[in-house]
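Dear colleague,

Thank you for sharing your sequence with our group. We've completed the structure prediction you requested, and as agreed, I am returning the results in plain text so they can be pasted directly into your records. Please verify that the sequence below matches your submission; if there's any discrepancy, let me know and we will rerun it promptly.
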Amino acid sequence: MRGRAVLVALAAAACAVMGQWVARSQNLLEKLVTPGPLVAGHAKLEKDCLQCHVPFARESQSRLCLACHKEIMADRLTHTRYHGRRTEIAQKECRSCHTDHKGRGADIVGFDRETFDHAVANFALRGAHASVACGQCHRPTVKFREAPADCLACHKGADPHKGALKTCDGCHGETAWRPVKPFDHDKTKFPLRGAHGTVACALCHAGERYTGVATACVGCHQIQDVHRGRYGPRCDSCHTQAKWKPARFDHDKTKFPLRGGHAKPKCDACHTGSLLDDKVATDCASCHRKDDAHKGQLGSRCEQCHNDIAWRRTVAFDHEVTRFPLIGRHAVVPCEECHQSAAYKGTPTACATCHKDQHHEGRLGKACASCHNPNGWRRWLFDHDAQTKYPLTGAHRGLDCHACHAAKNVDKATLPTTCYACHRRDDVHQGSFGVACERCHATQSFRTGTRVR
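Please find the predicted C-alpha cells below.
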C-alpha cells in the first residue's frame, strides 16, 4: 500500500512539471512569433502573453481584455456610455477595433474628435453646448469618460449662489446661461401662492441659502406679528397668502361660534393669554360677571334670560316654565317690580303681595283671584250664585259687597242669610210676624214687593 501511494505522488508531481513545461513552451513559442511590440499602455504585459491571450483560443481574448478594463465591462452591462449604447460595438470582439503589437507610440483607441457622436455618450450636446470646443470640458490629463457632467464643473465661476444650489438646470437652460428661466416653486415643499408669488427670491433666501429655509409663517412675518407670539406660529389660521391684512378667523369651526354681539369684540378681549396654553371659558359668567345684576345668585346659566345680541336689551325668560305663568297685564310688568331680590328666588305669588288692598281693607281676605284677574285689576267679577250658598236675586244683586260684608276676614266669618238679620229695622211689624220675612216680601224690594200667600 505504501508503495502505491508513493507512485501516485510521483505521478502527480510529474504532471505538474509537465504542465509548467508545456505552458512555458507555449509562451516561448508565442514570443517567437509575436507580431511586434505592445503599445506604451500595455508595455508591462509584454513579458507575460497569458495576461491577454489564451493559447489556441482567440475567442477568450475579449474576456481577458474586460477583466482588466472593468469600466468598459460595466458600460456594456449597464448599456451606458459609448461601449454600452452602441449595440454593434457592444457585441464585437475588442480586437476588432483595438489591435495591439503596433509599437509603443501607436494609437489603438482610434478616437476621432471631429466625427465622434456625443449623443452616444452620457452627456448629449444640446443648445450652446454643441458649439463648445472639446478642450473646454475634456482636460488633457483626464480620461474622456471621466469628464464631469454637472453644471458647476464648468460654470462655477458664473454661479452667484456660491454652490448653495446643487442643480443649475432648475433655472438655467442649455440654450443660454442667461436669461434665467422661472423656477417652478410648485415642485418644492412650499408652492408659492397669492402674494408669495411676487416676492423676490432674496427676501426669503437671504445669503443665497436655499436649503433649510423655514416655511412657517413666523419665519418671515414675525416682525408683523402684533400678537407677539401669543397666538402661536399658525398664522394661516387667520391670515391668508393673498394678503396679510385683513385677518379673519372662522370661529364657527370652534366649539364657540360667534353670534350677535360676540362677533364685534377684538380677539384680545377674550383671548388675553397664549392661544397655545390658554383655555378660554365659554360660560357667560366668565366674561359678563361685572354685568350680572343678580350677583351670581341665579347661577351661570345667563342664556336662560339673555342672548348674544345685546346683554341688556334682550332679556327674555320663559316664565311659562315656572309655577307662576305670566298672563294678561302680568306679562308686561318689569321683572324688578316683582323680583325685589337679585336671586329671583322665594318671590311670593299671592296677589296681596304686589296689590295692596286699599278698597276692601282686608275684609275680603287674600284670595283676590276670587274676583280679580290678570287682565285688569278693576275688571273684577265674583259669581255669588255659583261660588256661594246664597245666590243674589232682585235688589240684592245691586248692593255693594261691603253692605253685607262689613266685618274683616270675610273668608273666615259666617254671615247670616235670613232676611231679618239685615232688615230688622225695616220690620214695621216689630217682630209680630216672626223672622220669615220671605213669606210676604220678595228680594226685588222690601217695601214694594209685599205679597200675601
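Summary note from our side: The longest helix spans residues 2-32.

Kind regards,
the structure core
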